[in-house]
Amino acid sequence: MPVTDVSTDTENLTMTVTADFAAPVERVWSAYSDPRQLERFWGPPGWPATFTAWDHTVGGRANYTMNGPRGEKSSGYWEFLTIEEPRRFAVLDGFADEQGNPNADLPAMRMEFTFESAADGTRMVATSHFVSVEALEQVVEMGMIEGTKMAMSQLDAVLQDLREYAEGKGTRVELLDDTHVRITRLVSGPRELVWRAHHEPDLIRQWMLGPDGWEMTECIATTTVGESYRNSWAPVGDTEGEPFGFEGEVLLIDAPCRAVTTERMQGMPTETLNDLNLYEEDGATLVTVLIEYPDKDTRDMILATGMADGMEESFARLEREVLEPSRS
């Protein structure tokens, strides 16, 4: 992860984030000065940001809204105070309503970002200045430190060419904290088709089978918020195992980019939150699934079942059975 240190200083009323990136200063600067790139990492996983206004000039404003997995929204604004490309910029960062009007009930802060060349790329130091100890403690209690670390863990994928970042690396599992796991897999195909393959029963049945020797016996899919889905599998022939399935409800749909659902094994009360995101670049689509577990023990138990291996076999089948035929 890029973040190497987060420190707070109640005497000087600051919080300082230090991060190292394997990319030159100019590339890191471009990620912070382009709203479309910022949207990929400014919000923490599960809370992606959308910038609705962007005036990248001194005195200009940028408005953004972070969209939570259950439809929650948290909005903010930047007022650009200084811009010294590509080494430094400073903003007044505050909370706002969805129209960008400042929320006076929550603390604003001055944020200074500096970018310096380092042996392996770029060192970024971001210092937030608060008006009082209470304001500093308030944002810390709101989870700003954890949220910043998780948000910036997404930046490596932005700074690199997508194929360089993920091609040939299979299904990757990252433990973000005790209850959040991020799973990524690059597939060679357009986002629109990958979206359809996740939500149309005829396509789902072609690839979402897990290990060889299993068949999908039930597939009820939906892209309507509030409706339920249900998938079931059973062993074929001499394959050992008992039939099983998953079901849940759709919480959020932003086709063809994002779908958030609950998931539980049929007949079991334990539920996870699954946040599917699709990002396309150069004819390839990065599939990212952020899974929120109720606790660490549940997380470890489910990962120990070989879930990631089963997902890799399914993704390989997705490329072979759905995406490759579409190119012929």
TrEMBL record:
Domain Activator of Hsp90 ATPase homologue 1/2-like C-terminal as annotated: residue spans: 23-159, 190-320
Domain of life: Bacteria
Segments crossing the lipid bilayer: none
SUPFAM superfamilies (alphabetical): Bet v1-like
Similarity field: Belongs to the AHA1 family.
UniProt-recorded name of the protein: Activator of Hsp90 ATPase homologue 1/2-like C-terminal domain-containing protein
